[in-house]
Amino acid sequence: MKFTDGYWQIREGVHMQHPVDVRELKEKNGKLTAYMATKPVVIKGDTLNGTMLTAEISSPIPDVIKVRWVHHAGVKQVGPEFETFVDANHSVSVEHDEQYTTLTSGGLQARIRKSPTWGLEFIQNGRKVTGTAQKAAAYVQEQGKTFFREMLDLGVGEQVYGLGERFTPFIKNGQVVDSWNEDGGTSSEQAYKNVPFYLSSAGYGVFVNHPERVSFEIGSEVVSKVGFSVPGEHLEYFIVGGKTLKDVLDNYTKLTGKPALPPAWSFGLWLTTSFTTDYDEATVNSFIEGMAERNIPLHVFHFDCFWMKEYEWCNFEWDADMFPDPEGMLRRLKERGLRICVWINSYIGQKSPLFQEGMENGYLVRKPDGSVWQWDKWQAGMGLVDFTNPDAVKWYKGHLKRLMDMGVDCFKTDFGERIPTDVVYFDGSDPQKMHNYYTQLYNKAVFDVLEENRGKNEAMLFARSATAGGQQYPVHWGGDCSANYDSMAESLRGGLSLGLSGFGFWSHDISGFERTAPPDIYKRWVAFGMLSSHSRLHGNESYRVPWLFDEESVDVLRYFTELKSSLMPYLFNHAVEATDKGVPMMRAMVLEFPEDPTTHYLDRQYMLGESLLVAPIFNTEGTAKYYVPAGKWTSLIDGTTVEGGKWVEEQHGYSSIPLLVRPNTLLAIGSNNQKPDYDYADNVTLHLFELEDGATAKAVIHDLNGQPQATATATRTGSTIEISYEGTGKPWQAVLRGIAQAAAVEGAESQQTSEGLKLVPASGQKIIVKL
Question: Which part of the chain is the Glycoside hydrolase family 31 TIM barrel domain (predicted)?
C-alpha cells in the first residue's frame, strides 16, 4: 500500500511516525528490545504527549533473525497465526559498542545503530544485504485506520522473486503485490497461492509473518526499497540468511515447515475425466483401455467434480445414475494397477444431505447474526466447512476415510480461495486472517486423514490454494490456465515463483484447462508436463486423451511418459532433497547458477533437479531459444553437445525438447520405463557426463520410502576415471557418455554403444578406466 505522494510528500489524510531517537536498548535471553521516540528528545518534556515505537530483535533458528515492531502492545491478538518452528537449543551472541549493538545468529547479523538516529542493518557473512533506517519503518494512521509499514533496502541490480505462485513477470521489481488469495486463473495479478515470502538475488529472504493481507511495494513506491505493510498495531518479519540461495530456502522451510515426500507412484502420468464432460464407468474404461491399447503407461486416474451428483457438491457420494457400483469399479481399476484420485472441495451445497447436518451441528461458517453464511456462486446455497471446529474436522475427515476404504488413494483439494471476511468462526478466529489461512486448515485436514490411514510417504494432495506453510502438504497445481502458448509460459512463471517460495512440488494442466488446444500445443505441453514434478492431463469441456488430438500425440505422450519413468531414480533423489532442504524439484535457473547474472532473468527454462536443463517450446515453429550456462552440456535425447556460456537457438520436432545434462553429472537411469514406482537400484545405469579433471560426481539412489539405498561416485584424475558403487548387491552398470573407447578398463567388461562406453562390473563395486 502506498502512503506517500511521490518521494517527498505524504498522501493527504495520512499521518506517519518513524523511529528516530533510541531512548533505551535492553537485552534479555538473547532478545534485543529497542524503545524509540518518533521525534528527537532534547529535554525531558519532549517525552510527553508523544509516540514510542518498540522493535524487538531475536532469532528462532540459526541464520534467521526476527524483527517485531509494536506501537500499542495491549491490542488483543486474535489468530490464526502462521506456525513457525523454533530451535530450542539455538543461542545467539550480542556485542555492544558506543554506536552499535549487534546480534549474531549463525552467519547472519542484525546491527542496530543507536546514534545519531535509529538504523538497522542485516549483514550476511560479513556483507550487508539489506537494512532499514530513518523514515523506512513507520506507524501509519489514515482515516481512522492504522497500519505498520517497513521498507528494506533494495540494492543496485538486486532482483526479487517469489511471493507465491505469481503469473506476472518473474522478477517482482516494480510490482505491487497484495498477498490475498483469489480465484483469478493464471492470466492476471491475482493468485491462488499467496506467500508473504520473497527471495533476493543478493542472497537472503524476507518472510512477513502475517496471514492477513500484506501489501508489498517492490521497488515501486520507492524504487530503492521493498516496502510492505499490514493493518494494525504491529508488524513482524524474518530476515532469512544462508551461504547460498538454496541455503536460504532450507532455512525458510526449517522455519515454516518442510515438504512431505509424495509417494513414488504420484510422479507418473495422471489422466482425468476432465471437468464438465459427460462420463460414466464405460467412458472411464474407454480411456484406460485406449491408453493400454496404444502402450501408453498410465498410473493415476482422477475423477473430477461430476463423480458426485450435480448441485450436491460435496456430499461425498458417487452419483448412482453414472456409477451404480463404485466399489466394484474402483476394485476393477485398481486391478489394472491404477491409483485413484477424486475431486473435493470444502463447500457443502444446500441440496447436499450434509448441509442440514453441518448446519445443525455448527460445522459450517456462520454470519455475525448466527445464521450460516451462504451464497450461490459455484454451488447453489453452499456453505463453508469451519475447520476451526475440531468436530467439523473430524466429520469432514470421516467422509474422506469412507472413500479411502472404497479404494480412493488421494484427493484433489480444489478451491479454498473465495473465503468471506464478513463471518464468524467457531474458535473466534479473525476472518481477515482466515481468508488466506483457511486453505492451510483445509489442506492439513485432508493430508492428515490420508497420512493417518495410508502411512507416512503415502499421503499426497492435488491442491490449488495455499499460503505460507502449505508446502508441508504437497502437491500443488497451477490452476485454470488456457490452451495457448501464452498461458503455458505464464504457468511456468507461476511454478518457478512458487518454487522460490518454499514449495518443492508443482504441476499444471497439460495442454491448458480452458478450451481445447490444437495438436501442436498439446504435444509441446506434453513434453513440458512430463518433465515437471507431477504430470496431469486435465481440461474443462473436452477430454485430454491423446488420440482425440492426432496420432502423433499418442507417440509423443508415450515417449515422454516412458522417459520420465526411466528418470525416476534421479527424480526421486531430488524429491527427497526437496523434503530435506526445501529446494524445489523444478528450479529457476538463478537458484542453480546465482553467480551467472544472465540466469537471474530466465523464466522460460528451468533445471529439473540440479543436473537437467529443460527449455519448453512456446511456438508453432518448433524454435527453442534458451541460455546454457558455462561448461559442456549434453542432450539427453540425442547425445549432441553444446559449449555453454551463450544463448542457443534450435529447431525441435514434437518428440524432442532441449533437455541438457549438466557437465560433471552422474545420472542414475532406471531399468523400468513403464511405471514410476519400482526398485530404482535394481539394474540401474549410471550415465557419466563430461567429468572434468579433478571433479567428482555423485548419485544417490533411494528406495520408495525415501531411504538411501546405494551411492555411486565417479572421480577423475588426469586420464583416469574411477567409479565406485556402495549399498546393494543388485546389478548395476555405467555408461561413459561421449567416450567411445578406453586404453584400459579394470573391474568391468566394456562395450561400445551409440551413447558411449558401457561398463558392466565383473566383480566388486569399483571400476577404473584409463582413457
Answer: 259-573
pTM over 0.85: yes
Q: Which three cell numbers stand for residue 403?
A: 472413500
pLDDT value at 256 more than 90: yes
Nearest 10 degrees: Cα torsion 644, 646, 651, 654: 60
Secondary structure letter of residue 540 according to DSSP: S
Q: What is the pLDDT of residue 134?
A: 81
User: In sequence order, what are the residues at sequence separation of 6 or more whose Cβ sits closer than 8 angstroms to the Cβ of residue 60?
Assistant: 66, 84, 85, 86, 87, 90, 238, 255
- Residue 287, number of CB atoms within 10 A of its CB: 20
Q: Which of 541, 540, 548, 506 is nearest to 523 (CA)?
A: 548
Q: CA-CA distance, 340 to 301, in Å (whole number)? A: 5
* 24-78 pLDDT tens trace: 999 999 999 999 999 999 999 999 999 999 999 999 999 999 999 999 999 999 9
Res. 728 pLDDT band, cuts 50 70 90: confident
Distance CA 516, CA 638 (A): 31
- Radius of gyration for the alpha carbons in the chain, expressed in angstroms and rounded: 28
Nearest to 315 by CA among 358, 285, 374: 358
| Strand pairing report for 194-200 and 160-164 | antiparallel
> Exposure of 726 by Cβ count < 10 A (0-12 exposed, 13-18 middle, 19+ buried)?
exposed
Reported as a pLDDT band with limits 50, 70 and 90, residue 515 is: very high
Q: pLDDT digit string (tens) for 357-382?
A: 999 999 999 999 999 999 999 999 99
- DSSP states of 81-116: -------TT---EEEE-SSEEEEEETTEEEEEE-SS
Residue 265: DSSP 8-state: G
Confirm if 481 and 490 have CB atoms less than 8 A apart.
yes
134 within 8 A of 251, measured Cβ to Cβ: no
- Say which DSSP state 375 is in: B
Q: Which amino acid is at 695?
A: A
Residue 307 reports pLDDT greater than 80:
yes
Q: Which residues are tagged catalytic?
A: 414, 417, 480
Other Cβ atoms closer than 10 A to 472 = 21
Supply the angle between the helices 568-581 and 245-256 in degrees, to the nearest 10: 60
C-alpha neighbours within 13 Å on the C-beta side of residue 452: 13
* Model confidence band, residue 614 (pLDDT cutoffs 50, 70, 90): very high
pLDDT score of 115 more than 90: no
Q: Report yes or no: 505 and 575 within 8 Å, Cβ to Cβ.
A: yes
Parallel, antiparallel, or unpaired: how do β-strands 410-413 and 339-344 relate?
A: parallel
Helix (H) or strand (E) holding 651: strand 646-651
**What's the distance, CA 669 to chain centroid?**
25
Q: What are phi and psi of 481, to 5 degrees?
A: -90, 170
- The residue type at 100: Y
Dihedral of CA 181/186/190/196: which sign?
positive
Q: Is the Cβ–Cβ distance between 541 and 651 less than 8 Å?
A: no
